[in-house]
Amino acid sequence: xxxxxxxxxxxxxxxxxxxxxxxxxxxxxxxxxxxxxxxxxxxxxxxxxxxxxxxxxxxxxxxxxxxxxxxxxxxxxxxxxxxxxxxxxxxxxxxxxxxxxxxxxxxxxxxxxxxxxxxxxxxxxxxxxxxxxxxxxxxxxxxxxxxxxxxxxxxxxxxxxxxxxxxxxxxxxxxxxxxxxxxxxxxxxxxxxxxxxxxxxxxxxxxxxxxxxxxxxxxxxxxxxxxxxxxxxxxxxxxxxxxxxxxxxxxxxxxxxxxxxxx
Length: 263
Fold this sequence. Notes:
2 domains, 5-stranded mixed β-barrel, 6 helices, 14 strands, 26% helix, globular
């Protein structure tokens, strides 16, 4: 028991070191406009006093329960932590709009900074309260956000206390997922590059995103274990699923969303 407590204390200490490093790599740029926050919607979304909804770039937190569904683990903790961070910033934050400034829901896409210059996405990631996501073209801070998430993962904080990574053949529903599997086949055609994981899930790099990836490296993935993340789609719902095709597809939006694992 003493060993466990000591290791937890060490984990928080390590996290603090990594958090300061993450903030150093995600410095607040000058000239940010301070805006008032009306309320925190969830762990990665704010409602501003001017009526705008802001989706924080690079951060995906667990979903709060809706329509009778239960809250995902750490969803409430993430919302409460973001509320505390906003409150500590006197209810005002600085915004840095993304290169793509709106999502398909009409929300403003932006990096969010506290009054002291701390990047709130990096803070949440470093505390294990969300996952890094990288969606081009809004990937300017991906390196420091990766460092923040890595610190939480190594220290076993929050979401990382137990591995949230699913094996490819465990995928059973649409939605955000971290998954792992061995690449059984890689194909390139007019639809982009398709990376099959054990006949269960196919990862897809769309043609318009190929320029962001090293295509040669992707085609050398066959036989290698990988970890990927993103929003899994059920291709059977769209119709046209051919015999032998994987039911589940995960579109890759940036190289940060896939990595080769050590054997």
